[in-house]
Structures are given as structure tokens and as C-alpha cells.
Amino acid sequence: MQEGLFIDGDRMKADFDALSRIGSTGDGGVHRPTFSDAHLQARRWFLEVAAQSGFETRVDPAGNHSAVLTMPAATRTLLIGSHLDSVPKGGRFDGALGVVAALEVLRSVQDAQLELPVSLEAIDLTDEEGTLVGRLGSAALAGTLRPQDLENPRCGRENLKTALQRAGLSEAGLLSARRDPAQLAGYLEMHIEQGPRLARNGKDIGIVTGIVGIASYQVMFHGEANHAGTTPMQARCDAGLGASSFVVAAHQLVRNRYPDSVVNFGRAEFDSGAYNIIPAHALLHFQFRSPDESNFVRLDAELRAEAEKAARQFGLRVELHPGPKWNPVKMTPEVQAAFEQAADSLDLSHERMHSGGGHDADKLVRVTRAGMIFIPSPNSVSHDPREYSEWKDCENGANVLLRAAVEVANSSH
Ligand SMILES: [Zn+2]
Q: Which of 51, 72, 255, 395 has its CA 20 to 30 A from that of 318?
């Protein structure tokens, strides 16, 4: 481990503050949805600062923005990055902190005149938050983006076309933005935790072991409409009752048997929706997340079985329509180890944890060595202007990122 190697915290803070002003909401947050004026401005800012620092700058056909510190003997590149887009009216740390930290890593390596066997590339990945598609730049770079992802985007087809035009990008470009994995030496990211665990446990750094799998369903219970006043309670086929019973059963199942996992019902609709009619149909939208592959598969089957059980119990019929599904992924063990050694070399406490939110690393780990660290989010609020981390923790994270990057670069052969 490189003793005596540190980032310049004041320089990184100046960058972070400059970036926080672009798209500022005035209450500590930023509003930088993908390809909004503020987002495009933030990306221009990144390239300008990179160029002023003496780095080569690049924009690929997926719109990913890069600053490159080229090493003379290198044939491969270690990516270090995050994202400059935000959710609507989001916080100023999510994504932006990882990008300024990546840039600071490059400058620190440059200042120390280190010679590494691979080049270093600070990268701002396109549309991580999913204004358009979600983790669009990383999927394109990894080569896992499919034409159907663009045919049926989260934002709607027309919005996608307009947005790409604004940014001067094309669908053909997105689908051709794959980088040859043989030229990649890995991907590292520093991010805020967005949860309570590190602060609660008094730890400095979270070493991410993996990223949860996420599956979504629409489920429809079918019963029979009837008069709400004259139909005896025991003679009803109440779709709303089946749906409600399923919501409670699903929560109990996850809390009792899958402590690492979560389930959320984000939408419920009863049809016909009148006070005096027994609901004939009840629609639920739910999502569950699990960090472990075998639990993910088992929980999926058990939730479906619970829906069917609720339907049987109340004399209903049930239909389940699966939505998007992403399997859990594990981060690369040697990258986790490099982060741990880096934290140890700085006398920072750390613990291993999975990520309950999606990140670009889950696309990139499919093609190259990848890993992430988290820093504490003391108020546990994210995707909101109240999102906050102590600056000391931001500096700690960037120092861990720097030393781990040098370690991963030196172990690339
Ligand atoms: Zn993020």
C-alpha cells in the first residue's frame, strides 16, 4: 500500500462546491435530470476542469464523459467514476461526490508522479438515475444494452428520442459504445451509503460486497362486484380483501424469513372504487430486493405462492405479471480486498455490506473487476436536498479510493 499518498481535500471541496451550484435548488439540493440544461452544464464543467488539470478528455457514443491520465506503457485502463445526473430535486452528494473523488484521484497520482501499468480514467456515466432508461451509460459501455431497452424505455419512446437529440447522441451510437473488456483493468466507485448502517455502527467506510437483485410484479386479484350493504360478509368474493391480505403476508414473510431482503407495495387500485360496491378487481404493484442469488430465487417463488394462497383463502382468482428483473451481483473479491487494505493503511474502520440500491458497478462487474465503497450518510436521507455527509468522511473515502486504485492498477497484468 502507498504510504504517504493522500488526496488534496481542499481542492476536492472546491470542485464539489462548484458542482453543487450547477442546478442548485437553493435548499442544499440539485436538480440535474439526464440531459437537462443543468446536467449538460455539469458535464461541460467536468471536461473543463479535467482539461485544466492536464488530462485528455473524451466523450463516447453513449455520452459518458471521461478524463484520462495516460500511462506511457499502458494498454489497459482502470475506470473510476460515478454520475453527474440526479433524480429530480435530489441531493448534491449522490453521484457527484464519486465523480469529483475520481478526478481528485487522477490529480493526486499525477502530482505524486506515480508510474502505473494501466492508465486511469475518471468517468461520469450517463443516466445512472434513470430519467431515461437507468444505468444507460454503463450498460452501453459494458455492451449489455439491448435494442429493446431503447424501444421500451422508462421515460417513453418520444422522450428518449428528444433527450438524445438534445445531447447530440443517437440510438445507434448507444448500441455501439461497448468497450472491449480486454482494454479494461476494472471499475471503482465511491458513493454515499444512502442508508443508516455505517453511521449507526460508527464505521468510516463500507466495503460493498454486492448489489441487490430487484424484481417487480403487477398482481391482479379478481373477485365479484356486489351490493356492499345487502351481501353477507361470508358470501363475498372481495378482491380488495385478497390484495390486502397479500400485502400483510408478504411483509411478514420478508421480515420473519428474509432479514437481508425488502418488499414494497408502491401502488394499489380497487375496481370499481366506490364506497358501496364490493371490489371486483384489485391491482397491486410490488417490488422486492435481495442481495443473495438463492434467496432472491426462493423469495420470488414464496411471494408468488403467498399471492395464490390469499386468492384461494378468499375465493378469488389471481394473475401475476412480472416486470423488469435484475439478478443480484457480487463485487470482485480482490477489489474488496484492495479497499480493505487501503482503509487499514489509513486507520479507518470498515465493514462489509451489500448495496440495497442499484449502481453502475452492477453493469460493469459483468465485464471487468469492479467494486465500490460507501461513506456514511448520518441522517440516512437520500434523493432529497437534505442528503448529507460530513466532509471528513468524503475525504476519507477519496483517500481509500486513491490507495485502492493504485493497488488495483499495480495488480493489473
Ligand atoms: Zn448514485
A: 255
